[in-house]
Amino acid sequence: MAWKKVEVKEEKHLDEVWVSFGKEPKGDVNAKVINEGESIEGYIEKITKSTKFKQPIVSLISGDVRYLMFAPKDLEKKIDSLIEEVDGKMVYTRITFTGIKELDEDRKAYTFEVEYDDENVLEE
Fold it and tell me: Keywords, A to Z (predicted)?
């Protein structure tokens, strides 16, 4: 089971924005900072398993913007269960950043709440 790709017309330009959780990104990265309690909403286009990075990358389309975010285990698990629950349909999804928990000196756990609107589904 896999998510269907969002149909994007060639003439439509999508700005790509990286999502940074709770802190300003370093450098000249085009990024949106999501603080605790804030969320982003849209259709999940795909989840890419990266060979370069440890975490997969979630691609979420909202209006004219494609948001790219690293998927910590908590988010990846919740999205996996969402995919099973909605049987691979493209549903409108809200991802809310709920916080960062310090595990030890070197590790942090990022937590998310994932909700979906099963009445707002893209046609196959």
Answer: Plasmid
